[in-house]
Amino acid sequence: MGAAMIGFVVRGKPGDQDLARFAPRVTLTLLAGFAIFLLSAGLYVLPALLEPVPPGAIPDYRKERVIARLDGKVPYFLLGSFVGATLLSIQGWLPGTSRRNRP
Predict the structure, then answer these.
(1) Alpha-carbon distance 81 to 91, whole Å?
(2) Phi, psi of 97 (to 5 degrees)
(3) CB 29 within 8 A of CB 89
(4) Hey, which of 29, 70, 81, 88 would disulfide with 36, CB 3.0 to 4.6 Å?
(5) How many CB atoms sit inside 10 A of residue 73's CB?
(6) What angle do CA 82, 48, 55 make, to 5 degrees?
(7) Residue pLDDT, tens place only, 24-78
C-alpha cells in the first residue's frame, strides 16, 4: 500500500503535468542545497586545515581547529545554502530546473 501511495503522489491526477515536474525539481534543489553546504563549509574550514601544526601539538590539533572554526556556524551555512539553492531553482539556473521545457 505504501508504494502505491508514493506512486500516486508522484504521478498525481491524470492530466496533471505540473505535479510530475515538481518532485524532480524539489529533489534537485535539495541535492544542490546539500552540495552548496558542503562546498561552502569546506571552503570556510580550509584555512584551518592548511595551517601548519605547531611542534608539540596534540594529535587531534587539526580536528580541534576545524571544530572551533565551525562552532555555532553550521546552522547558518545550512540555512544559507538552502535559501541559495531555492533561489537558483526559482530562476532556473540549477541543472534540471529550467522553465523553458514547461508547457
Answers:
(1) 15
(2) -115, 15
(3) yes
(4) 81
(5) 13
(6) 160
(7) 888 899 999 999 999 999 999 999 999 999 999 999 999 999 999 999 999 999 9
Predicted TM-score of the model (pTM): 0.72
Find out whether 62 and 47 touch, Cβ atoms under 8 Å.
no
Q: Per the structure block, which three cell numbers stand in for 41?
A: 563549509
Q: Please tell me what DSSP assigns to residue 66.
A: H
Alpha carbons 37 and 23: distance in angstroms, whole number: 21
Distance of CA 64 to the CA centre of its chain: 25
Distance CA 89, CA 35 (A): 14
